[in-house]
Amino acid sequence: MEKNIFSELKDLLRFSKVGFEKESLRVINSNISQHSHPELLGSALCNHYITTDFSEAQLELVTPPRNDKIKGLNFLEDIHHFVSCNIEDEILWPFSMPTVINKDTDIPIANYGSSNLGLFKRTYREGLSHRYSRMMQTISGIHYNYSVPETLWQRPLLKKMSENSIEVRSSAYFNMLRNISRINWLILYLFGASPIITRSFITKGSQSLKQLDNQTFYLPYATSLRMSDFGYCNISRNKLQVSMNSLQEYVSDLRKATNTPLDEFVTIDKINTKLQKQLNENVLQIDDEYYAVARAKSKTISEQRTTSKLSQGGVDYIELRSLDLNPYSRIGIDKETVLFLETLLTYCFIKQGQNFTNDEIRNINHNDSLVAEKGRESKLCLLKNGEKTSLKDWGKEIIDNLLQIAAVLDSDKMQYTNAIELMRTKINDPNLTLSGRFLDEILSKNLSFVDFGNTIGESNKTYYINLEKSKNINWGLLEKESIDSHNQQKVLEMDDRQSFKTFVEDYIRY
Question: Where are the beta strands (DSSP E) in 381-498?
């Protein structure tokens, strides 16, 4: 089946679209910033390119989806330039794991103004802080949004599968989601860059951690502690299972989770009855609280909840969420990573896979956890189809499968093939991975995690400050968006006609 699909669609696959969402903490004097979102960056509520994630100090930089992936990277670079010139003495923290933060109250929750939408986003984050702690929410990453060309769905082979185009499209993307989950361990191995954590993230059962200094700890073979139980662990896995076997099951499970109270969350509002501490007491406040390595997304622009948009229009793209920030790139991701991931996600789209069983889900979670904490360990074995297999052997098998796709994406160039072969060298030598390079540099040079972060952040800031605005083709666009977004927020705040309670009820209902 997959050979037929590849033969039918290979001329279109190079026209897929990719967009980025990159999170970074604003830091000053080694500490998380206590300053409000800078005025010159626009309204965090309404700016399409520069917003905030959980914290007021946690920027989220967003690029529109593009066929030309290099232009997409250049756009992200332009946003970094604009931001760096408008955050005064602050730097953008280059690591996924935050600088040393002594207590939760040092982390300001993002503020979006007085409109119902702004209060909704703020209250949702208040809920996250009480449910999981503010500390966990300060961990940053980069999301890679991928979609195949729209014209692909009109091809004869796909049209034969069903008369319902939404059904065909959503089924194909959920097949892709399952395949991503099956080999997410490879993404953690290659692009994990968080083998070090600060004391704030130490939990019971952390005896295996080694101490760097009195504030920071590491695991010798870790790749991504951000994606482990020490970091931004997938909390929802412990509370619910959201099916990836079909759009209908996915939506149904998320709807159930957003309508089912959880005892430990029921008590949150009793902390202080004068202030609303969360949107509701359910397993998930809203659909977006479901954390996964990859999620189904809709391109529909509206304030409807995610499951409503998916139910009405189907899946339009996949959001890959398991990437750490690359500290060796000013923008947190490099060209080789972008090209490799495009090839990998194309492979995940083409490869036909079965629906998940509970046993396979357990194996996937086992592999992710093992690679996150021990991925560079010699002779590490994973579970493939229920059987133990060498990480290296499985990795090389995937690389071999990617080369055929890379050859098509290359057209008359070799950049995709070169990116794939580069990752092969990292499978052969774990020391070449981001986590291997990062930890080796810290240990061999006897560096402090915080000082190293400051050094990289200051260097990046200096580069952008010295870069002429004329070199930034999107400067005018970003400046205009900043001004327009402030005006849009004012309009929202003036136009609210319903109570906040009704606004929340309507959102959850529809």
Answer: 381-384, 387-390
Confidence at residue 237, expressed as pLDDT on a 0 to 100 scale? 46
**Whole-angstrom distance, CA of residue 250 vs CA of residue 243:** 5
The model's confidence at residue 231, banded by pLDDT at 50, 70 and 90, is: confident
| SS3 of residue 196 by DSSP | strand
Q: Catalogue all structural domains in the chain, each as residue range(s) with its CATH number.
A: 2-509 (3.30.590.20)
Q: pTM value?
A: 0.95
Residue 413 has pLDDT above 90, yes or no: no
Confidence at residue 162, expressed as pLDDT on a 0 to 100 scale: 53
Asked whether the beta carbons of 91 and 461 are under 8 A apart, the reply is yes
> Rounded distance, CA 323 to CA 96, Å?
9
Supply the DSSP symbol for 61.
E
Contact 285, 236 (CB under 8 A): no
How far is the CA of 414 from the CAs of 403, 408, 409, 420, 507, in angstroms? 11, 10, 9, 10, 48
Sequence-distant (6+) residues with CB within 8 A of 430 are: 189, 221, 375, 376, 378, 436
On whether the CB atoms of residues 57 and 26 are closer than 8 A, the answer is yes
Convert 124-156 into a string of H (helix), E (strand) and C (coil).
HHHHHHHHHCHHHHCCCCEEEEEECCHHHHHCH
| Rounded Cα distance, 26 and 33, in Å | 6
Pair of tokens at residue 147: 């979609």
* Start-to-end Cα distance in the chain: 38
- pLDDT digit string, tens, across residues 477-490: 999 999 999 999 99
What DSSP string describes 474-504?
Answer: THHHHHHHHHHHHHHHHHHHHH--S-HHHHH
- Tens of pLDDT along 121-136? 999 999 999 999 999 9
Cα 141 to chain centroid distance, Å, stands at 5
